[in-house]
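Why does residue order matter? Because the sequence determines the fold. Keep that principle in mind as you read this record.
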Amino acid sequence: MQNAPFHLAFPVKDLSVARHFYAEILQCQEGRSCEKWIDFDFFGNQITAHKGGESSEGCTNLVDTQAVPVPHFGAILEWHDFYALAERLENHDVQFIYRPRVRFEGKVGEQATMFIQDGNGNVLEFKSFRDPSQVFAR
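Structure:
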């Protein structure tokens, strides 16, 4: 099956905070918008920040010794792009839930990962696989 871009709509309390975070910090191009929502090109996928909602309070699941927040969304980046984004986040003083690290080191699915919040409480995970062919490996 061919990969197709996904669409994700998510709640935000403040659209101006969302616009700053996604457009300025993550450098996602803004698409259509109105007073209630904004579309962003999120690494080739369409995400839509909708004003009026609260972020979902979730739970955590243990993944390679870290209590991973659920729900969350994110993107899988090339190895170099992952570390360039981590540096950009640090330069913007974005607080990490989990700082960049490699998990499953030396195992199938070895990956770099980091978790942040977007300023409206939504959790994002960015990751990169040392071997991109292992994204779905068991």
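The two ends are 19 Å apart (CA to CA).
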